[in-house]
Amino acid sequence: MKKKYMARWIIVAGIALVILGLIIQFFPWAVNWFGKLPGDIRIENENTKFYFPVVSMLIVSAIITLLVNIPRIIKLIK
Fold it and tell me: Hey, which of 15, 18, 47, 51 has its CA 20 to 30 A from 4?
């Protein structure tokens, strides 16, 4: 029974990655905000570049958490 649900999650994750890849390929302006938010760390010198998108990753994490927990929330409402 668990294998069936895991297979579905892998399929959904694959479809989501394909959609994200298509968005990045054909509509790059749609994700232009990523990494440019206040709180993202960017240090650039002559020879080195260091980049750490702290706030951007917090937002992505919050969105993924909400998406993963939607079935649980719907189950609680019923």
Answer: 18
Amino acid at the residue 74: I
Return d(Cα 71, Cα 9) in angstroms, integer.
Answer: 12
Chain segment 38-59, per-residue pLDDT in tens: 989 989 999 999 989 999 899 9
DSSP secondary structure letter of residue 46: S
Contact criterion met (CB below 8 Å) for 34 and 59? no
Instruction: Give Cβ neighbours of residue 32 (< 8 Å, ≥ 6 apart).
Output: none
Task: Return the C-alpha torsion angle 33, 34, 37, 41, nearest 10.
Answer: -140
What's residue 1's pLDDT? 56
